[in-house]
Structures are given as C-alpha cells and as structure tokens.
Amino acid sequence: MTIDLQLNSRVLIQGVDNPLALAAIGRMQTYGTKIAGIVSAGQGGQTLGDLPVFDLVEDAQNVLGPIETSLIFVSAYHVLDAALEAIAAGIPQLIIITRGVPPLDTIRLLRQASVTKTLILGSGSAGIIIPDRLLLGIYQPQLYSPGKVAIISRNQSLTAEIASELNQADLGQSIVIHIGSDPLVGSSCRLWLEWLQSDPLTESIVLVGDICWDSEAATAAYLLTQQGKPVVAYLAGIHASTPHPLTDAAIVLSHTLSKPIYHADTIQQRLETYKRAKIPVAKKIGQIPSLLKKLVSRG
Question: Which of 48, 50, 91, 243 is most buried, most CB within 10 Å of its CB?
C-alpha cells in the first residue's frame, strides 16, 4: 500500500448522522480540505450546505470523479459495509473515525484491504493533520502549529497535550497521525515510521502509545533494527501496576477477558528494547521537547 497526502486530494464523507461529522466537515472546509461530497444512505439527491449527498459511493464517483480519501463516520456496526463499499469503488485511503468497531468486522476489512492495497487508518482514528496545510479528521486545528516534529499516536487526548508542549518549545509539528484507539487498527506505527523517513518536512518523531498494546512491542523491536530520524517515545500507563487500554469500558472489559494482563516484567522488557534501540522514553510529557532537542543536536 502507498500513502498519498496531496494537499489537493479530493475527500468523501461517509455518514453524517452525528454531530461529530457535521462539526468536522465545517472545520475541514475552513482549513481548505477539498471535500467533494457526502454518502448517506436514504438521503441521496439532497445537499448539505454546498455539498451534494449520495446514497452510494459508486453514485458519488459517477458524478464527482475520482476520490482519493474517504472519512468514515457511520455507526460502529455499519463501518464494515461502508468501508468495503469504498474499497470496491477503488478509493485508496480510508480514515475510520468511528470507535468500537467489532473486532471480527475489522479482521474482515483488513483482509480485503490487504488484497486491494488500501490504506486503512483507524478504527477510532482522529485522522491526520499537517498544520496550516491539510486536515483530514476531527482535530481542533488551532491546537497545532507548523514545525519539524511528526507525531504518531495511539491516544487522541494525549496527542493535543504533546502538541501543546511542542508549540511552547517552538518545535511545532510536521504532521500528526492518529492510527486509532481501537484494539485492532489498520496501518501500523511501523508503516508510518518508514514513510516519515522520506518526508522532507519531518526532522524528528514522537511515538505516543499505550504500554498494553502488542503493537508497542513490535514497534520497539522494529526500531532496534533501524537507524533513521531521531525518535522519542511516550508510553501511557507505564507506571500502572496492571494497566489497561485507555479507552471505553466495553473495550477495557473485552481486552481483559481476551488477553492476559501485562505485568511489570513485560513492561520492563519493552522499555529495555527501546533502550537498546537508543530510543528515549519520556517519563513526563513535559520532557519530550528537551529530549528531542538533545537528539537533534547530536545528529
């Protein structure tokens, strides 16, 4: 799969039956995102502001032409159908904003996406923002400013807090990528780390994760074998004795029932892997800017 974040990309919105979608559309349009239209079953032929509404993705493409990215806001149990419809229409990038997608639905979706080489961000993703250039998602854009630090995050609330620290340190952000907060997500930290190595806007990278997720161990192991742009990590829940994913109660419960609780020795193993990879792990969010400056000055 390839990542294509052209500033003139044409965007489709799937699902507008919740206030989150409506607010996001307004912010994205104000930011300059080229939203071409909306798909909402049963509302085809109507308009939302200046945006045409269609019943099907195929109908939208027949009228609007090629679409590069679809943002999916439909309810959790309709995400699979909406995403498969977008994939069948040939849309190469999907950002799934909806949280709590059933795991089996996600597995089916990712299998199909692997066949078609479709990029999936999420589920439970806030999307992507390139400050002052591109907004694809539900970010509050005023919290982000242009700079040279990329953020790859698993935790939406911490992302804004870290961006604020970077802003205060006059570092800013080159791009912010929230890969999703659900237990199963599409694109991985590793994919985005590889892409950022050739991103001319990015000088250094902050990884924001949750110590409970298996992907954090995989990311640490990958970094152990690579030498690239400076990376600083911040792992939420690192000081908890029996940490759980920082998400809603249903996912916490399902995670506890389906997977073993991580104990201190497992956490320590992950920290040791980051240490061997020479990736500093910030103990507090406020340490991130100084760690980044130190790494960049060494380079």
Answer: 91
Task: Say which residue the tokens 């802003």 belong to.
Answer: 167
Edge-first strand order for the sheet with 93-96 is: 47-48, 51-54, 34-39, 10-14, 69-72, 93-96, 119-121
Q: What does the block give as tokens for 232?
A: 């600083």
Half-sphere exposure of 201 (CA within 13 A, CB side): 18
Of 57, 56, 101, residue with least CA distance to 80: 101
Tally of CB atoms within 10 A around 31: 17
* pLDDT tens figures, 247-284: 455 445 444 554 444 444 467 777 887 888 889 999 99
Q: At what angle do helices 79-88 and 57-64 cross, to 10 degrees?
A: 40
Q: How many residues does the chain have?
A: 299
Amino acid at 44: G
Coil, strand, or helix at residue 136?
strand
pLDDT digit string, tens, across residues 52-107: 999 999 999 999 999 999 999 999 999 999 999 999 999 999 999 999 999 999 99
Q: pLDDT-based confidence at 239, cuts 50/70/90?
A: low
Residue 234 three-state SS: strand
